[in-house]
Specification:
The complex is a heterodimer. Chain A is mainly alpha-helical. Chain A is flat. Chain A is built from 13 helices and 2 strands; from the N terminus they run αββαααααααααααα. In chain A, helix 10 runs antiparallel to helix 13. Chain B contains 17 helices and 15 strands. Chain B folds into 2 domains: 184 residues, 3-Layer(aba) Sandwich (D-Maltodextrin-Binding Protein, domain 2); 194 residues, D-Maltodextrin-Binding Protein, domain 2, CATH 3.40.190. Chain B is α/β, with parallel strands linked by helices. In chain B, a hairpin with a 2-residue loop joins strand 4 and strand 5. In chain B, helix 13 packs across helix 14 and helix 16 packs antiparallel against helix 17. The chains are: A mainly alpha, B alpha/beta. At the A-B interface, helix 1 of A face helix 1, helix 3, helix 4, helix 16 and helix 17 of B.
Chain lengths: 298, 416
C-alpha cells in the first residue's frame, strides 16, 4: 500500500472539509433516516411517551402474511397500477402525437391540456369530489345522457375507479409534454420516406412514431410505475383517511400511514411494509427494463 | 501561508454549516406570564365563544397564566399523536374517552392523582364518566362534559298515529314503529345509525361481552341474539332505516328533523342542532326503551388530559382544575351544548328538571360509557364494516359478525 504523502493527505482533508456541508445534509436528511427505518423495521416501536424499542427480528415482515388489510391494500394498488400506467401512457402518446400534427391552435391546446398537471393534487381531489357527489356534475351529465349514475364516493365497487379516472386525467398531460419534446427529435426524413412508400397517418404513427419514442416510453412507464405505486393523497382525501368504503380505496402507502400515525405502537410494522413496497417497486422497474430493452433504432 | 489556507477552509465550511443550522434554532420569548397551550377540536361558533369566555375568566383569576387556545379542526388524534412524538403537543388537551386507554398505555398522559386535592371534590363527578379515564386507581383525565342517548320522538307524528306516550320497552317501540312507518312517503318509525357505538349497551345486555381481555368476542351467541332485534326491525319489519337511505347522509338528527323518522336515539348534541335547523319541530325526549326490563343507554364523554412532558405542570393543573371545577364547568355547560359531569353543577343548572334534557341526565346513572380498553377502535371498525352488510340484509348477522371478529382479532395481533 502506498503511503500518502503529507501534501496528499492535506489536500484530501481539504476536499472532505469542503464536502462536509453537503455530506452532513445528505447524512442527516437522507442516509440516517434510511438506516433508522431499517432499524425500526426490526423492532416494535412506541414513539409516544419516551420512545421504546423492543427487538422483534423478522416478526414485522411475517405479519403481512396474516394481515388482511395489507393484502387488500396490495391488491388495490396492483389493480390501480395495472390500469392507470398503460392508460395514461397511451393517452399521453396519443395526445402528444395529435398536438404535434401541425393543427391550428395546437399551442393553445397544449396549454389547456397541461393545466391539470399544474393544479395541486389535493385541490384536484377536492374539486373532483364535488363533481363525483351523488347530485354532482358527473352524475348530472350521465343522467342527461340516459346512462346509469353511480355513488362514486360511497360505493365500494366504483370508488377506486373514480380515483383512477381522476388520476389519469391529471397525470397524462405531464407525460404528454415529455412525449412532445421527444417527438421533435424524430427526423422528418423518416416520415417522408414512409410517405413515399405510401404509408397512411396511422401506419406512420405505429411504425415510426411509436418505435422512435421507445426510450421515452420506457422512462414514462417507469415514472408512472413509481408514481402509481405510491398513490396516497388522493385516496386519503377521498376516504377521509380511512381507505373506505369497505377498504376499497386502501392503498399500500395509505396503510403505511395508518399504521405509522393512526394506530399506536405499529411504527415498526409500518416501516417493514414500506421496505416491502420499495422492493416491489424495484422489481417492477427492473422487469420493465428487461422487457423493453433499449435497442438502437438507427 | 499554509495555516491561513487551512483556516479559511475551516471558516467557510463552518459558515456554511452555521447557515444551515441557524434555521433550526428557536427563539424563546421572555415574559413574566407562563404560557399554557390548550388543544381541542373546534365546535360551532357559539361553543367557541363560550370557551373563549371561560378561558378569559380563568386568566382574570390567574393573572400569571396566559392560555393559548389551539384548535385542531381535522384529524384531531393523528395531529395530537404526531405532536406528542415530536414533543410539541399542548400542555392540556381534549381526550375522547374512547381513545384514552391506548394513549394512557404509552405514558404520554400525566397521572393526575397527585394533583387532586380535597377541595376539588372528586366525588361530585358522575362515576362512570370519571372511571373512563382511569387505569387501575390512577386518574389520567377529568371529564369535561358528556352526553347519553335518549329517545327523541316527533309529537305530531305520534298524535296522528294515536300513540299517547313514548314507548317504555323495546317491544312497545317495535309496535309503535310499525304504526308510524309509511314507506311510500319515506317515513320510518325509527331512524338508526348501524354502528356499534350506538348499541354497545344492547350488545352486552344478555351477558355477552364484545371484548374479552383485549380480544373481540362479539360473535358470541349472547351478543348476536341481543342485537338481532335491531337488524330485524330493518330487514323483516322494515320499520327502521338509516339516514343515508333517505338521503340524510350520516345524520340521524337531520332524518328526524325532516320527518323521515318518527323516533331516533340521539344525544344532547341533537337539541341545539334541531333548534338551529328545524326550529318548528315539535318533539319530546324520553329515556331509551328498556331491554328485557333493564334500562340502558350509551354515554359519550370527553375529558381534559395533561401532557406528561409539559414544562408547566403546576399551571396546567390550575387550568384543568378551573375548567372542570364547579365555576368553570357551570359556565361551559350553561348554554346546554353539553351536560356537566359534576352532579352539583347539573343540579344547579336544573338540567335534570329540563323537559328535553331530563331523560339524558337520568341516563347517566346506568349508562355504558363508550370506552372498553385500547383495542376498541379496531373492534369498532371491523364490527361496523360487517354489521352494515347484515343490517342491509345481505347476509345473516351471525355469519357477518363471525367474519368481523376474525378480522378484528387478526388486526389486534398485528398491532401487538
Amino acid at each position: 500500500m502506498k503511503m500518502l504523502s503529507k501534501k496528499d493527505r492535506r489536500e484530501a482533508g481539504q476536499g472532505y472539509l469542503f464536502l462536509l456541508p453537503a455530506l452532513l445534509v445528505l447524512g442527516v436528511f437522507v442516509i440516517a433516516p434510511i438506516l433508522y427505518a431499517v432499524f425500526l423495521s426490526f423492532h416494535k416501536v412506541e414513539l409516544i411517551g419516551g420512545a421504546t424499542y423492543e427487538f422483534r427480528g423478522l416478526d414485522n415482515f411475517m405479519k403481512v402474511t396474516f394481515d388482511d388489510r395489507a393484502i387488500i391494500a396490495l391488491k388495490n394498488t396492483a389493480i390501480y397500477v395495472a390500469i392507470v400506467v398503460p392508460t395514461q401512457t397511451f393517452l399521453a402518446l396519443v395526445l402528444a402525437a395529435s398536438l404535434n400534427a401541425g393543427l391550428k391552435g395546437q399551442k393553445f391546446f397544449r396549454i389547456v391540456y397541461f393545466l391539470p398537471t399544474l393544479t395541486s393534487s389535493a385541490v384536484l381531489t377536492l374539486i373532483f369530489m364535488w363533481m363525483y357527489n351523488q347530485n354532482g356534475l358527473i352524475n348530472y351529465v350521465l343522467k342527461f345522457l340516459n346512462l346509469p349514475t353511480y355513488n362514486w364516493i360511497g360505493d365500494p365497487d366504483v370508488a377506486l375507479i373514480a380515483i383512477m379516472i381522476m388520476n389519469i386525467w391529471a397525470t397524462a398531460p405531464f407525460f404528454m409534454v415529455i412525449y412532445l419534446a421527444a417527438l421533435q427529435d424524430i427526423p422528418d426524413s423518416h416520415y417522408e420516406a414512409a410517405e413515399l412508400d405510401g404509408a397512411g397517418p396511422i401506419q406512420k404513427f405505429w411504425h415510426i412514431t411509436v418505435p422512435n419514442l421507445r426510450p421515452v416510453t420506457s422512462f414514462v412507464v417507469v415514472m408512472g410505475l413509481i408514481g402509481t405505486f405510491q398513490l396516497f393523497d388522493q385516496s386519503y382525501i377521498f376516504s377521509g383517511g380511512s381507505g373506505g368504503p369497505n377498504n376499497s380505496t386502501l392503498t399500500v402507502v395509505l396503510l403505511i400511514y395508518q399504521y405509522a400515525f393512526k394506530t399506536l405502537g405499529t411504527m415498526g410494522y409500518a416501516t417493514a411494509i414500506a421496505f416491502m413496497l420499495a422492493i416491489i417497486i424495484l422489481v417492477a422497474t427492473l422487469l420493465q427494463r428487461k422487457f423493453s430493452k433499449e435497442e438502437s433504432l438507427y | 501561508m499554509r495555516r491561513t489556507k487551512w483556516l479559511s477552509t475551516l471558516s467557510i465550511s463552518s459558515l456554511l454549516l452555521a447557515t444551515i443550522l441557524s434555521g433550526c434554532g428557536n427563539e424563546e420569548s421572555q415574559s413574566e406570564k407562563t404560557e399554557i397551550v390548550l388543544s381541542g377540536w373546534g365546535g360551532n361558533p357559539t361553543e367557541k365563544k363560550l370557551l373563549d369566555e371561560v378561558l378569559s375568566d380563568f386568566e382574570k383569576e390567574h393573572p400569571h397564566i396566559d392560555v393559548k387556545l389551539n384548535t385542531i379542526s381535522d384529524q384531531y388524534m393523528d395531529v395530537l399523536k404526531t405532536r406528542l412524538i415530536g414533543g410539541t403537543a399542548a400542555d392540556v388537551f381534549y381526550l375522547d374517552a374512547f381513545e384514552a386507554p391506548a394513549l394512557i398505555e404509552t405514558g404520554a398522559v400525566e397521572p393526575l392523582n397527585k394533583y387532586v386535592t380535597q377541595d376539588f371534590e372528586i366525588a361530585d363527578f358522575e362515576k362512570p364518566m370519571l372511571d373512563a379515564f382511569k387505569k387501575g386507581e390512577e386518574l389520567y383525565g377529568l371529564p369535561k362534559d358528556y352526553s347519553t342517548l335518549a329517545l327523541f320522538y316527533n309529537k305530531k307524528m305520534f298524535k296522528e298515529a294515536g300513540i299517547t306516550d313514548p314507548p317504555q320497552t323495546w317491544e312497545e317501540m317495535e309496535l309503535a314503529a310499525k304504526k308510524l312507518t309509511d314507506q311510500e312517503k319515506q317515513v320510518y318509525g325509527l331512524g338508526m345509525l348501524p354502528q356499534i357505538e350506538r348499541m354497545y349497551y344492547m350488545a352486552e345486555s344478555r351477558g355477552g361481552q364484545v371484548i374479552t381481555d383485549g380480544r373481540a368476542t362479539f360473535a358470541d351467541d349472547k351478543v348476536v341474539d341481543a342485537i338481532q332485534p335491531v337488524v330485524d326491525m330493518h330487514v323483516k319489519d322494515k320499520t327502521a332505516a338509516t339516514p343515508s337511505e333517505v338521503g340524510a347522509g350520516q345524520s340521524a338528527g337531520e332524518m328526524f328533523g325532516r320527518g323521515n323518522a318518527a323516533m331516533v336515539m340521539e344525544g344532547n348534541w341533537n337539541i341545539p342542532f334541531l333548534e338551529d335547523t328545524f326550529p318548528e319541530l315539535d318533539y319530546g325526549t324520553a329515556e331509551l326503551p328498556t331491554i328485557n326490563g333493564k334500562k340502558g343507554t350509551m354515554s359519550f364523554t370527553v375529558g381534559y388530559a395533561m401532557n406528561a412532558e409539559s414544562e408547566h405542570k403546576k399551571e396546567s393543573w390550575e387550568l384543568i382544575d378551573y375548567l372542570t371545577g364547579k365555576e368553570g364547568m357551570k359556565k361551559w355547560t350553561s348554554k346546554g351544548f353539553a351536560l356537566p359531569t359534576r352532579k352539583s353543577v347539573a343540579a344547579e343548572l336544573g338540567f335534570d328538571q329540563d323537559k328535553l334534557r331530563g331523560p339524558l341526565v337520568s341516563g347517566a346513572e346506568y349508562a355504558t360509557v363508550w370506552q372498553d380498553g385500547p383495542t376498541l377502535p379496531i373492534v369498532m371498525n371491523n364490527f361496523n364494516n360487517q354489521f352494515l352488510s347484515a343490517y342491509l340484509g345481505d347476509r345473516p348477522l351471525k355469519e357477518a359478525l363471525k367474519d368481523a371478529e376474525k378480522q378484528a382479532n387478526r388486526e389486534i395481533k398485528v398491532t401487538e
